[in-house]
Amino acid sequence: MTYTKEDCIRDTKEHIAQVREFMMMFAQELIKRALIHDNSKLENPEVDIFTEYTPKLKHSTYGSDEYKTFLKEMQVALKHHYANNSHHPEHYDKGIKGMDLADIVEMICDWKAATMRHDDGDIRKSIEFNKNRFNYSDDLKQIFLNTVEMFD
Q: Which Pfam families does the entry link to (predicted)?
């Protein structure tokens, strides 16, 4: 049996349709996540603790000793938050290695938005700091840096 140009076009169109379907599934997952992102912050114990600490965090430098102290004081809220939000490495026993790509996309968007809440926030510095905090590779760090270009 000869593989014809028509066969190639048919197979290619089928492939395109399959890729389109998978990409739409992924896009739907991201839309779902966008609609429910951080809703746990609107309930206790998170809302009361975040009400107290959000202004403090705004004036602190990400990763500083002061920032780390605030995180320790917020443990009740953070434990609840991480348990209910899979876009945080702390949600998983394996940390960032337990995440899927949708978690990663939501996480980098969350990191960018979080830097905008800090007086001296800088997404590129956060990516560098988090490389050690969450033990991810240079490759993933570079993917994050490439990705945040779309936010500029």
A: DUF5662
Q: Where are the domains of the chain?
A: 1-36, 38-151
CA-to-CA dists, residue 36 to 33, 60, 86, 112, 127, angstroms: 5, 27, 12, 17, 24
Q: Which residue has the tokens 């779902």?
A: 32
What are the DSSP calls for 68-96, one per residue? HHHHHHTHHHHHHHHHH-TTSGGGSTTGG
- As a whole number of angstroms, the longest Cα–Cα distance in the chain is 73
Name the burial class of residue 64, with classes exposed (0-12), middle (13-18) and buried (19+) by CB atoms within 10 angstroms of its CB. exposed
Task: Say how far apart CA 95 and CA 90 lie, in whole Å.
Answer: 6
Kindly report, residue by residue over 88-121, the tens digit of the pLDDT. 999 999 999 999 999 999 999 999 999 999 899 9
- Cβ 66 vs Cβ 85: under 8 Å: no
